[in-house]
Amino acid sequence: MVVQGAVLVAGTTSDAGKSAVVAGICRWLHRRGVSVAPFKAQNMSNNSVVTPDGGEIGRAQAMQAFASGIAPSVDLNPVLLKPGGDRTSQVVVRGRADGQVSALSYRHRTAALSDVVADSLARLRARHDVVVCEGAGSPAEINLRATDLANMGFARRNDLPVLVVGDIDRGGVLAHLFGTLAVLDPADQALIAGFVINKFRGDPRLLEPGLDRLRELTGRPTLGVLPFAEGLWLDAEDSLSAVADGVLGRPAPPRGGQWLRVAVVRFPRISNATDAEALACEPGVAVRYVTEPSRIADTDVVVLPGTKATVSDLAWLRASGMADAVRAHAAAGRPVLGICGGYQMLGHTVSDPDGAEAAPGTTVAGLGLLDLEIAFDPVKHLATPTATAWGETVTGYEIHHGRVVRSGDPGLIGDEGSDRGNVLGTHWHGLAENDGFRRLLLTRLADVAGRTGFVVAQDTSFAAERTRQVDLLADLVEHHLDTSSLEHVIGHGAPPDLPVLTSGLAASPA
């Protein structure tokens, strides 16, 4: 019998592993022939993609859709918050930008957005046997409970059983799991069906006494302990969460005699930094995120990635000394690549007449490395284009307010983008995921950088690497979770009459 139902995967903290666990469960079910879809009612991330139905959703949900064997759609992530500053975010509703909010003003919109969330979930449940939902942040954020869209308020409204994931690599995981349950009111606690521990290193037998005691204290089982997996780093919810010492991925040795060293500028409001992941999949390509000029001085290629705040991040680039370092790098004839917001920074001017991202009427000077002028439009441009570049058919996606109003440089992809020899730029995200184009791009970058001993691998497949990683997640679920209990929770909900931990808190709203 095919399992049918839904479950919410919550986490003790942000980056506890919710996105990875959801992807693993989806992939495990998909491999068993179950029609499954992921869902995140509300996401906060500047990493996003454009769906085939023309909207914008969090990149993690697109990755989870890939794991599920389905096309991404706006129903998978009906509400997306894109931070443009410490206190303000752009709200994306069913794929379309719908104003700016502060942390306080957003509370007044959640009642209406709750209906949007419910409609999207209902459509997914009608089309699929199982929907695996992902929480946001932590369900223990009881200060936000009254207007919660994605955690226990969402679970209560939809009668969903909840699994709570804790990251043992952070320390204190047993206290995190116990405390998360304890601060919830009885009605919320009744939906917590069990726990999952993530990123365990060592012998699981050492953990067993703690898990036994946790069950005694809470009445809830730990459905599994997922081991730490070195090979997982693509499509992370937090694009920098899998970065060790600034290095992206696990660089494979070069095929030739030289490495190609790539520095990706880590803007304060970096967006879609995942564009660099396709480069980091290549043997001999060492990709590092950088925030100081000295890191540019000894690199071969500089990448200016996307940003949610082009004007303010351009100001940061100047104040930090990075702008001068990028100019010096280009003046020496070495390659610079700009993507989306980074591309816009490379031109002569960036203006925002209507205040799409900056103050209305703002005009600032760019780096002047491309003959380009940018003006921001209040309407965000979303597209999934296909074209030919350097003889290769390429696909990508566009998410930007900035428009090119004048360009004097040759295009990079037909008329799109700019190609000035050692300085290149494009509004397209995902361009390097096209294997043939990526090989030509790396060959060009290495030649311009003088890395004549660098050899581009001809057998790297970005799609195959992404498939390998979601299959690895499914293997972790299959071999380290109690999948029989997981199926029962999905199909039948949380067990009745679960113990309540007394916290002294007043009841939360339904």
TrEMBL record:
Q: Which BP terms from GO are recorded?
A: cobalamin biosynthetic process
* PROSITE patterns reported for this sequence: GATASE_COBBQ, GATASE_TYPE_1
Q: Which domain of life is it from?
A: Bacteria
MF term (GO), any = ABC-type vitamin B12 transporter activity
What does UniProt list as catalytic?
C340 (nucleophile), H429
Q: In what pathway does it function?
A: Cofactor biosynthesis; adenosylcobalamin biosynthesis
Keyword terms of this UniProt record: Cobalamin biosynthesis, Glutamine amidotransferase, Ligase
Q: Where is the CobB/CobQ-like glutamine amidotransferase domain?
A: 261-436
Domain CobQ/CobB/MinD/ParA nucleotide binding, first and last residues per copy? 8-232
Record's function text: Catalyzes amidations at positions B, D, E, and G on adenosylcobyrinic A,C-diamide. NH(2) groups are provided by glutamine, and one molecule of ATP is hydrogenolyzed for each amidation.
Protein family according to the UniProt entry: Belongs to the CobB/CobQ family. CobQ subfamily.
Query: What's this protein's name?
Result: Cobyric acid synthase
Species of origin reads: Pseudonocardia alni
Gene (UniProt): cobQ
